[in-house]
Amino acid sequence: MKILIEREPLMASIQNVMKAISSKTTIPILSGIKFEANEQEVKLTGSNSDITIESVISREEDGIVNIHEIIPGQIVVQAKFLPEIIRKLPDNQIEIQVDDDMNINIRSGHAEFKLNGQDPEEYPQLPVLQTENSFDIQIDLLKMLIRQTNFAVSTSETRPILTGVHIKLDNNELGLVATDSHRLASRKITIDQVENLSFNNVVIPGKSLSELNKILEDTQDTLQISVTDNQILFRTKHLYFLSRLLDGNYPETSRLIPDQSKTVMKVNSKDLIQSIDRASLLAKDNRNNIVKLVTQGQQNIQITSHSPEIGQVEELLQTISIEGEEIKISFNAKYMIDALRAIDSEQVLINFTGAMRPFVIRPEEESEQILQLVTPVRTY
Amino acid sequence: MKILIEREPLMASIQNVMKAISSKTTIPILSGIKFEANEQEVKLTGSNSDITIESVISREEDGIVNIHEIIPGQIVVQAKFLPEIIRKLPDNQIEIQVDDDMNINIRSGHAEFKLNGQDPEEYPQLPVLQTENSFDIQIDLLKMLIRQTNFAVSTSETRPILTGVHIKLDNNELGLVATDSHRLASRKITIDQVENLSFNNVVIPGKSLSELNKILEDTQDTLQISVTDNQILFRTKHLYFLSRLLDGNYPETSRLIPDQSKTVMKVNSKDLIQSIDRASLLAKDNRNNIVKLVTQGQQNIQITSHSPEIGQVEELLQTISIEGEEIKISFNAKYMIDALRAIDSEQVLINFTGAMRPFVIRPEEESEQILQLVTPVRTY
Fold first, then answer.
1. CB atoms within 10 A of CB A76
2. How much is the ipTM here?
3. Can you give the residue ranges of the DNA polymerase III beta sliding clamp N-terminal domain (chains A, B) (predicted)?
4. What are the residue ranges spanned by the domains of chain B?
5. For A2-122, which CATH class?
6. Cβ neighbour number for residue A367 with a 10 Å cutoff
């Protein structure tokens, strides 16, 4: 194998596939990046047990030459130092040459690296996905869906199924739900041209979605999603992102969401975030980061928290309206801030059904199909 | 005590004195910031066993009002959360009020923090320095002196005296030396109007100089330095920075510097840094980060390193000139890069006196009174 390639597209590809490579892998070959060169393109692959990422560099695209010379071949290169080596090479053109003994020679300007390659035949074969169950989605929309739900997955392995985001497609409606059993994030959107497609109980590991979100650029290009029994593939023109799915049945979450409420509060989201954020400064000194919210009449709320050692904080915040019963409620400040930030609306509606019942936060504009639920903490 | 103060100068002052506050202090009162308000100004003090920093906020300066209202008094405020609290307050004007029971009330907009204060009488009294042994130096010049020497202090406590920078003033010449016994950095400058002042064996802890360098802004204003037997004070208009000095005698270092050489190399510093930096990528995989330099004729040098697991790297670099004997020498890449960066000259002269003798790096322009010495490593 030999390629003469521009630094920039090579660097971008390496950085993409590196996101799948774990330094703690127990399979030695997976600590490397697989390079496959054919006449038209060079493909890089990185993988761990959960995620596989393939990134393709075309020889030429939109009149820009990425690769000046290709002699087809394959090799696996140690990933650990590769990004730094490529970044620090003196010249923008880089020659990578592999001999029959799998010695890799990387040359650029007056610098020459000789690296030990590994046998590409030992690299695990990737499953070929049936892509019949596929649908398209705009990338910036997908990124928003991930951002609005993925933070609520569980980080504990007590119930592994909760470390993923549940995805459901039915009647042209795509729904995402994440919960760690203390809070829940739910988001729905309408998808066009998927009349014949439906699935349920697809649970994508939260970590996979975080990495996918990092790799995808915020564009209006579309991406294809294909689902099988145990894997999901996200595909753009140059990128394949394959993740395993979590085993097991995702709990039925719709009944957790209260359908009535005793107190309805409409409030400016940014003001509320900032007040809770300040109160949380002292609350964080305790292990549990609890702040208290108390309604005062039909207009004001008081946000408080205290730390026995440091002191206490008290804020009086004017809402837009409070309807229904008075309420005193305590909750985890981080959960509340995460929920408000995910909704990303100027005004939010918060529906309480008592100090010990989960409360629901929605954007003021009903059209946005997003809902955040937070379970309060008993302090009274 | 009561002050009504603008956020920006308060924040800047807090951040300055925080640099002296250690979260691991064994003296509880030193985990706080001392506030002292008189009619004209508010002074903040932070301290640990090595450094004391005082920052003064004038009531009004250059027509800008920093403090709108002062009722004199003193208090010690827990430092841990204070920067975050001040930064996140809703309004740019902040009222800090202390009652007779040392309760601190911080109010801004609709937010109110009540913090537990500590008794300012318990705060250690700062020594009053005799400032007769004082001289002035331009701040940007002082920062450069620190940058060019301080990196070479020892980080090991085996010989505590080597964790500091040795400073000497004699005959209008100020000299700084730092060494960890593997490398040495030396810098001299001429100071005006200090005819009657001289000192030797003043050793400032490297950590103090790092913090001082962080606090000082890169301006051409002057700063006053005062030296006593066991302390050194750096004073600007608004800032007092007091550091203890290290006990013990600093070793005589001048005889370590070879006064002859067998090989003299003139080379572009940036090219050499980049070559060694690349070679170091693989060398770092070993514990010792060793690269090898070999002259090839009167013009070229080869830089190499290898890691048994990853591979090897080889660079051929053209110098400006090589005079004298051929040389093969190995050294710690980090030491060499630190030295070259500190010199900050387009071209450098490197004087070798054999593969096992320390070598000396100087800027090509002799006028710059800087010298870096690196001890090679035996590999042949």
1. 24
2. 0.85
3. 1-127
4. 2-122, 134-171+195-253, 257-374
5. alpha beta
6. 5
